[in-house]
Amino acid sequence: MTTVVGTSLKRKEDPKLLVGTGYFSDDIKLPGMLHAVILRSPHAHAKIKSINVEEALKSPGVVKIYTGKDLEGKIGRIPSSWLVPDCNLKEMPQYPLAIDRVRYVGDGVAMLIAEDKYAARDALDLIDVEYEVLEPAVHQKKAMAEGAPLVHDEVENNIAFHWKAGEIPEEIFKTAEVVVKESFHVQRVAPSPMETRAAVGDYHPATGELTLYCTSQNPHIHRMVLSGVLGISEAKLQVIVPDMGGGFGGKIGVYPDEALVGYASRDLQQPVKWIEQRNEHFMASNHGRDEIIDVEVAGSRDGKLTAIRVKNTANMGAYLSTMGPGVPTIDFGLMITGSYDIPHASCETFGVYTNTTPTDAYRGAGKPEATYQIERIIDLFAREIGMDPLDVRKKNFAPKEAFPYTNAQGLVYDSGDYEKPLKKALEIIDYEKLRKEQEELRKEGKLIGIGLSTYVELCGFGPSAVAGAIGFQGGVWENSTVRVHPSGKVTAFAGTSPHGQGHATTFGQVVADKLGIPMDDIEFVFNDTKSVSMGWGTYGSRSTAVGGGAVSMAADRVVDKAKKIAAHELEVSTEDIEFENGVFKVKGVPGRERTFQEIARSANYAWNLPEGMEPSLEGQAFFDPENFVYPFGTHIVVVEIDQDTGEIELKRYIAVDDVGRVINPLTASGQVHGGIAQGVGQAMWEGIVYNDEGQLMSGTFMDYTMPKARFFPEIENSFTETLSPVNPLGSKGVGETGTTASIPAVMNAVVDALEPFGITDIDMPLTPEKVWRAIQKGREQA
Amino acid sequence: MTNEKMKVNMTVNGRERSAEAEPRMLLAHFLRDELGLTGTHIGCDTSQCGACTVMVDGGAVKSCTLLAVQADGSEVTTVEGIGTVDNMHPIQQGFWEEHGLQCGYCTSGVMMAMIGLLDENPNPTEEEIREGLEGVICRCTGYQFIVKAVQKAIQIMAESGQPVTAKEAVGEVRS
After folding, report:
1. What residue stretches are annotated with the 2Fe-2S ferredoxin-type domain (chain B) (predicted)?
2. Strand, helix or coil for residue B129
3. Min CA distance, A238 vs chain B (Å)?
4. Is A285 helix (H, G, I), strand (E, B) or coil?
5. What pLDDT score was predicted for residue B1?
6. What are phi and psi of A445, to 5 degrees?
7. Are A278 and B38 a contacting pair at CB < 8 A?
8. CB of B143 within 8 Å of any CB in chain A?
9. Closest Cα in chain B, distance from residue A742 (Å)
10. Rounded to whole angstroms, how far apart are CA atoms B157 and B91?
11. Which candidate from B41, B48, B80 shows the least CB-CB separation from A702?
């Protein structure tokens, strides 16, 4: 049987994007369309004393200005969608425009609407706001201290939630042969998709329907939440996501701005467009990470870890974002043991309100942080007991025989064979030889470092009952419809929300194999809540595992029905029909057959169907998996550090990932490369910086270092395949593996290179200055 | 400076175009909003990302760094002018073959910048390609397949049998 699953097909999505005919939000032009801009707070924390819009209203082309007070009672507050239970969570939902107090630089104060975008920006400067500046709480540990300024008066010590999981018997740490501690800061970064956020509201007065085009990774979640915020029936709110220039978690959130645009379009009965500026994006779109992680491990001199105790102090920003609370708790705290069989674990997480932009899921969401702390501390443990970090890893791996493996926090890892990608990676790099070379070069004064990361991550959300138990305000199943037209051509629908991942191609490959038809016969529809009945979107590396599972099941249902029709026409029982390469054949009788296209016509014409069978040929499936999926792998990084300048050169990057069944190796590799670039970016260059006044110091691409092409060596990536038993395709997730694995791999390599100076940790990002200072300090202490 | 509109004329993708523009209007906005050529994208406010790169009088230029009036009388080529789905420019073919794009937002600008690079240096090393990408930002790909895409484009041009520069290939496609 010919098969396209597992082959590197070129993407169906590409031609229109390559010739410049993609259709992104800013390309939308509707008759009578107005342009919105949002005035944002320049202060981290202030009372709004007055807002004077008189001058601005006189400016040419200005149509309307809304302030928070104007909208009070007319538009709801923006809720979080992950209300983690049993952690005394104090949600303080955000007003779409601040009413009397601003809580971060970028908090919306007024929305101005004009006939032209230049006119709108001109007039925005004429809005006069009088503020009384208040002392801000910026750093999460300081914000928790007694007497710190309160972000929300109702929330004592700014503690938004205090979550705990796991307990460790007291004697474990007391009697341990070795205890190693460290504190890590996984710094705040900006997801930074190349297209900023955008929204276009198009209200239809005659029907009371609102079409909202917006940048979203989950249009149905946007519809569900915004229907509540705007007080409009879900049946009258259509959310469409046009082509979208990346997300990385930054477009999961339901933001005030989209609600405002929808409101304004309904109020003015005209289309309204809002396009976020890049500097605005840095302050008004959710950031990621910003977690201070204190970790302590206990173990024996022979290299076995017995317990891990973690405290995470997470900076949530001024409001709890859509997925925010789940990131440093569920996503992080249940994964702290990583790929290792550590019998005891506990995690305590404080979520802290501060006068900063809210934090939310960013590529990996909690798993990069969990992986960072375990992969870093295992290296420090290895150093403490004088073992090679490779040997400590092998000694502690959850063994292949133990799968499905239950970790100390109670998560059940679906499948795994951690030695497999490790072995492959070691072969590629010739680890033993490399260690010898490192030793030789050290004698010559060259600082070579080798960093390992043998990660596992939790993704593929997931079973809906579990989502409910962990406070997620929605389901996490997926939906697909495979509709076969009379010609045998297919229109298929799926509830995931592709924006670069290539679902039309990979899901198309699944359908092509199932139905035995060419890729060109299949068109997919995504990202329109009127066309796609339901879906929970694209995040948490769930699209292939869950969405692909639904597609596969829907296609199976088409085949099941088609087989019955073929059997009826060929006057045999269904058991006598075999289906291969798009042809239904009577077993053992050559020539007695029907093509898929013939059956498609029969099903749609319905002239002669089996008794009781309904017409048409359409399969629909709703897939709610029994478990999450847990991709894993080994990344190895080799660096050389210039001890005079502190500059780090990435010499080699090896990635061997096991993401279950790979549908398309080309696009899967693309995901790995992109993920690695973002993780290495976090380790080496990127960082959102606030000063003590809560001013955003990194608000443009001039101040925030985005990874560039010349920063990287060629990434040597490959896969091993350990299938997942929890979905029809056997696939795991691939979108976040690179980010999750790479951050500690880079840091471990750098710290390894600096071992001669006694350095055990450096804060990210690893700027040459920080590295140089660490070397100087090491020299002084030597 | 007055905001009074002026008539701006330029040859875009081989066609004479003219439209009214305020003197302060960026070329990027002029191409997108006045001429409807939305294949050119805008990704930042500070001329870092290069998503808006086009060819102006034969050189790759970030169209957010130029006012429309400054390009008056110029010859401009945007992504819409380098190839069609049925007759792609080698750079477009390279990007398709080698998965040089994911979300596709930065892609137009990156391709235009690479046409500019190949025009100056028809046979760049991998290092030179990576350096040539300095003016653009891609958040999706990690750049590796962009580098491969450029190498593929060079190969396609070499195998086409006739010596053709990236810029000439633009003209070929258009005619």
Report:
1. 6-82
2. helix
3. 23
4. coil
5. 47
6. 85, 10
7. no
8. yes
9. 13
10. 9
11. B48
User: Which residue of B25, B52, B103 to mutate against A (max A Cβ within 10 Å)?
Assistant: B103
Q: What residue ranges define each of the domains in chain B, with the CATH number in brackets?
A: 6-77 (3.10.20.30), 90-160 (1.10.150.120)
Q: Which residues, other chains included, contact A279 with Cβ-Cβ below 8 Å and sequence gap of 6+?
A: A699, A700, B45, B46
List, in sequence order, the alpha helices (H) in A386-502. 389-396, 419-429, 431-443, 464-469
Pair A140, A352: CB distance under 8 Å: yes
Distance from CA of A11 to the nearest CA of B (A): 7
Q: Do B140 and A277 touch (CB under 8 A)?
A: no
Question: Identity (one letter) of the amino acid at A563?
Answer: K
In degrees and rounded to multiples of 5, residue B56 shows phi and psi of -120, 120
Dihedral (C-alpha) A117, A123, A128, A134: value to the nearest 10 degrees? 20
Burial pattern A598-621, b for ≥16 Cβ within 10 A else e, equals bbbbbbbeeeebeeeeeeebbbbb
Find, in chain B, the residue whose alpha carbon is nearest to that of A197: B43
Residue indicated by tokens 């010590």: A157
Nearest Cβ partner for B130 among A26, A279, A709: A709
> Listing from the earlier edge strand, what are the strands of the sheet with A583-586?
A577-580, A583-586, A593-595
- Segment (H or E) for A102: strand A101-102
B107 in contact with A, Cβ within 8 Å: yes
| Minimal CA separation from A47 to chain B, in Å | 29
SS3 A352: strand
Share of chain A above pLDDT 70, in %: 100
Whether A14-134+194-246+251-284 and A291-461+627-781 share one fold: the answer is no
pTM value is 0.98
Tell me which residue in A14, A700, A706 faces B101 most closely, judged by beta carbons. A14
B160 close to A (CB below 8 A): no
Query: Which pLDDT belongs to residue A124?
Result: 98
Cα-to-chain-centroid distance, residue A709: 23
> Sign of dihedral through CA atoms A583, A586, A591, A592?
negative
Q: How do the domains of chain A map onto residue ranges? A: 14-134+194-246+251-284, 291-461+627-781, 477-623
* Mutation target among A9, A19, A663, A746 for the B interface, most CBs of B within 10 A: A19
Six-digit token string for A610: 């089996």
DSSP class per residue in A698-737: --STTTS----GGG---EEEEEE----TTSTT-B---TTH
Which of A110-125 are b and which e, b meaning 16 or more Cβ less than 10 Å from the residue's Cβ? bbbbbeebbbbebbbe
Q: Which fold has domain A14-134+194-246+251-284?
A: Aldehyde Oxidoreductase; domain 3 (3.90.1170)
In this structure, which CATH number among 3.30.1490.20, 3.30.365.10, 3.40.250.10, 3.40.50.2000 belongs to the domain A477-623?
A: 3.30.365.10
Give the mean pLDDT of A475-502. 98
In this predicted structure, what is the pLDDT of residue B169? 78
Q: What is the ipTM of this complex?
A: 0.97
Mean pLDDT of A56-61: 97
By CA distance, what is A21's nearest residue in B? B39
Q: Report the CATH number of the A291-461+627-781 domain.
A: 3.30.365.10
The residue assigned the tokens 């007291």 is A170
| Beta strand pairing call for A522-525 and A490-494 | parallel
Burial of A400 (0-12, 13-18, 19+ CB in 10 A): middle
Q: Are A332 and A370 in contact (CB under 8 A)?
A: yes
Task: Give CA–CA dist A346/A359, Å, rounded.
Answer: 24
Provide the 3-class DSSP secondary structure of residue A364: coil
What chain B residue is nearest to A29 in terms of C-alpha separation? B33
Residue window 32-61, chain B: list those with CB within 8 Å of chain A.
32, 37-46, 48-49, 51
